[in-house]
């Protein structure tokens, strides 16, 4: 009943939308009750369409009445063709195209009924391109023409770009225009429409003239047979006006071929529970077609399956629904993938920005580091220049004020030469110390040893200090230079600590540096031995303690402050003795 109700609603919908229900709703209801053999309920009808503001005369208000008082009372004992013709009469005049068509009004009516059968179960009603193709193929096959798939594909592409499908009236215009039946006359097209109408709407599975043997008189009479899903009706002629009888089919029926007899050929027998029917076809091909058609119908009845065209329509709908669901699922997945991709793009963009920011920070830090390094280099260069200038100035002053020390000049030159050579050795040692931080502890031990030796040298230099006389102003100036040098040494020590961190990268050169250290230590020891055999005014310059140093005209002082004082006293004593 649900399927029947849906089929009825489609035809009623056309009539319903074509009428002005405020004036003609009663007409539609009366006509529906008449053609559907439903008892009239004048009270409910008048109540529904009473002329006041509360009466549900809107589209939504009419459906409850239609379902309750008409459709729910339909039993199926009505003429479907007459029902469709009534609905067609109410809507055709308003909607049918005024332009001339290649099909008659009767053919247009049949196309309209076929549309209701093939249309989708949603409103407003449309027929989708797949069902249009199915219908046009059936018509083309019925006309005996070839199907133009390429032509329909072009039409389908043009249709899909504008809308989902066609309305009933657009389908009538399409078939009536002859676009897919070129070269066919009106009669051929009409016969094709009638054949498809009989199959799809009237459930005619097969029809044609055959001879039937009578049960009483046993004579053979030509009849027009019409095969439907559960019955075979036979008429006097194909106009179906004079019906002679029915052969009721069910799952217990069977059909079998018979040998030729009584001068009749192409015989077959239809066996039912109460009767059997002998029938003669016009030729063997027709005989085989009828046997196969009847047997297929019986098999469907046994299986409880619908007619082939209805089953095929249901399968096509299910396939479209499945494809639609798959398409929706694919769209959903695509949206999810797109969303995930957008999120990933945002994450990548965030990471990219973070990397750019980190790179910018690293570049800024590197720039600052390089700037700091350049500043330190400039500062040390400046300090060295200042030290050189101070040294030169002191050398000039000492040269002017210390003429009495000319006797030591020769020895000083020798010591300077030794100092230069010793400085080269110390430079090698210093370079080795800069190349490898890991040997710092070894150098420290060496420095401790050298410090011990330095103590011995200081004792030796105490005797030399007695020969040195310096004015109080010179002493104060040396003290100031010592303080300046001490501060420079502290800055240098800080820089040295920074450089010590960078020397850790030179671990792989440990063995080579060790050899250099050994060589430098040997050289240092050799020069220390040489210095120990000479009486000089300076002591060996060596990596020593962090105690404050004095500055002389030859560079950092070789003696401590106590040694200088002792030297000064000794020098003054000698000067007094000479005077």
Automatic annotation (TrEMBL):
GO cellular component, as recorded: cytoplasm; lamellipodium; nucleus; plasma membrane
Protein name stated in the entry: Switch-associated protein 70
InterPro entries, alphabetized: EF-hand_SWAP70_N, PH-like_dom_sf, PH_domain, PH_SWAP70
UniProt keyword Coiled coil present: yes
Function comment: Phosphatidylinositol 3,4,5-trisphosphate-dependent guanine nucleotide exchange factor (GEF) which, independently of RAS, transduces signals from tyrosine kinase receptors to RAC. It also mediates signaling of membrane ruffling. Regulates the actin cytoskeleton as an effector or adapter protein in response to agonist stimulated phosphatidylinositol (3,4)-bisphosphate production and cell protrusion.
Keyword Cytoplasm recorded: yes
Gene Ontology molecular function, alphabetical: DNA binding
Subunit-structure text: The SWAP complex consists of NPM1, NCL, PARP1 and SWAP70.
Location (main, coarse): membrane
Lineage of origin: Eukaryota, Metazoa, Chordata, Craniata, Vertebrata
Coiled-coil segments: 309-530
Keywords (A to Z) from UniProt: Cell membrane, Cell projection, Coiled coil, Cytoplasm, DNA-binding, Membrane, Nucleus, Phosphoprotein
Domain PH: 203-299
Subcellular location: Cell membrane; Cell projection, Lamellipodium; Cytoplasm; Nucleus
